[in-house]
Amino acid sequence: MMTRKKRLQLLAEMCLKHGQAEVARRIGKSDSAVSQILSGAYQANPDGILQRVEEVFGTTLVACPVLGSILLGVCAEKRKLPFAATNPRRVQLYAACKDCKERGVL
């Protein structure tokens, strides 16, 4: 996992590369939230948003007990899937994801 400082650097780099509006759209937050985080004016704890930045733009690998070594972004998408008793892989993921340390601050 990246440090808060590294996540802020990644956010700034991605805003330069893709534009602030595009980055905000891709992480599911507003332009103003991204702007406030970058300027240090964000009033709430930004850790959840910064984790999402790492999930979307980062290259952090995590050890999934079901899928093996995967990107944090793939982990985030898989853990959001609803339970599906008809799909054995989804049953395994649901059980593994609910107690996983990679759930982070979200």
Tell me what you see in this structure:
- This protein is mainly alpha-helical.
- The chain folds into two domains: 4-57; 61-103, no CATH class.
- Helix content is 58%, strand content 8%.
- The protein is built from six helices and two strands.
- The protein has a two-stranded antiparallel ribbon with strand order 1-2.
- Strand 1 and strand 2 (68-71) form a beta hairpin.
- The two termini are 14 Å apart.
- The model has no long low-confidence stretch (mean pLDDT 92).
Any descriptors?
106 residues; mainly alpha; 6 helices; two-stranded antiparallel ribbon; 58% helix
What is the percent of helical residues?
55-70%
Q: How many structural domains in the coordinates?
A: 2
Number of strands: 2
Report the mean per-residue pLDDT as an integer: 92
Strand portion, in percent?
5-15%
Distance between the termini: 14 Å
| Radius of gyration, CA atoms, in whole angstroms | 15 Å
What count of helical segments does DSSP give?
6
Poorly predicted runs: none
Q: What characterizes the major β-sheet?
A: 2 strands, antiparallel
Which descriptor suits the 3D outline?
A: elongated
How are the strands of the largest sheet arranged? 1-2
Q: Name the helix and strand elements from N-terminus to C-terminus, one letter apiece.
A: HHHHEEHH
Give me the secondary-structure category.
mainly alpha
Summarize the helices and strands and which ones pair or pack.
Blueprint: H1 4-18, H2 20-27, H3 31-39, H4 47-57, E1 61-64, E2 68-71, H5 72-79, H6 88-97
Antiparallel strand pairs: 1-2
Helix pairs in contact: 1-2, 1-4, 2-3, 4-5
